[in-house]
Design brief:
By secondary structure, this protein is an alpha/beta fold. The chain is built from 15 helices and ten strands. The protein has one domain: Rossmann fold, CATH 3.40.50. Strands 1-2-4-3-5-6-9-10 form an eight-stranded mixed β-sheet, with helices on both faces. Strands 7-8 form a two-stranded antiparallel ribbon. The chain is globular, with a radius of gyration of 18 Å.
Length: 314
Amino acid sequence: MFPAAKFVDSNGIRMAVYEQGDGPAAIMVHGFPELAFSWRHQFPALASAGYRAIAPDMRGYGQSDSPGDVEAYGIAELVADLTGLLDAYELERAIFVGHDWGAIVLWHMAMLAPERIEKLLILNIPHFPRPPIDPIELFRKRLGDDFYIVNFQDSDEADQAFANDPGHFFDMLMRKNQVTRAEFDRLPPAMKVFSMLKAIRRSHAGGEPLLTNEERDYFVNAFARSGFSGPINWYRNWSQNWRAMDGVDQLIKIPTLFIGASDDVIIGLEQIDAMRPLVADLTLEMLDPCGHWTQQERPQDVNRLMLKWLKSTK
């Protein structure tokens, strides 16, 4: 059974936090469009292994507060939410686990507040070197206005479209076995540009549903209540986040486990390899086959790799 929410004041917002077990704290940070519930398979595994598994609904998600201003979702605020969570629990530091946007936040936390992270476990999204120009400019030039991150900058069309039918949104996006990396690589360039709006306008999607009916209902009900603007506002700070990190040392010195997915078409193997010089103490594991929703698609393997690495680094 998934733990009940408790509420914690952190960085000026009210966060819904879920926890299970006793022992060293392992804080799990979800991505988009997810929730603390995305870690439902990891809670019992970590608790059984002697850890205190903790996961918040991040700012803008689930039962946590959703500030109205776009600027309230910048990277400094997202990192401060996590350091504030540590303070609320009276913890100097903790093990942190992140997936998707949660991984991006933790890479930034590892640069901005490394003393608060004991160990770092990252799923899917590698540590990218800071580009020399605004990344939104790069995305727009290389991938066009339909690319979902670019589209999010230009209007609230996506916010409204996703909220109009959250059930269809999750039916189309949260799936497994849709396409292998080899199949994706053979597509023409125009078909490799991911438009989230085009994806939800389909009536059918490939692969198989990732979620049971009950799990789908949990996500759908949560996003029907909260909407999508808060989560999408994380993306609307992409340029500001890039500016804020000017001059910050990019080298990560925290012991890090990275778990990649062979069929995550958002991330290429060359991007994972490019991370190696930027993470001084890196253990790299790949799950094959596996798509983007790694801890939900391959939970037993993720749990095994996490616990094996945590034991080896004691």
